[in-house]
Amino acid sequence: MQLQVEHNSSLLQKKSCLICKQLFEMTEAKIIICNEQGTYYGEVCPKCLGKGFGWLSDRFERLNQPKTIVIEQTPVLEIPISA
Ligand SMILES: [Zn+2]
Question: pTM for the full model?
Answer without folding.
Answer: 0.71
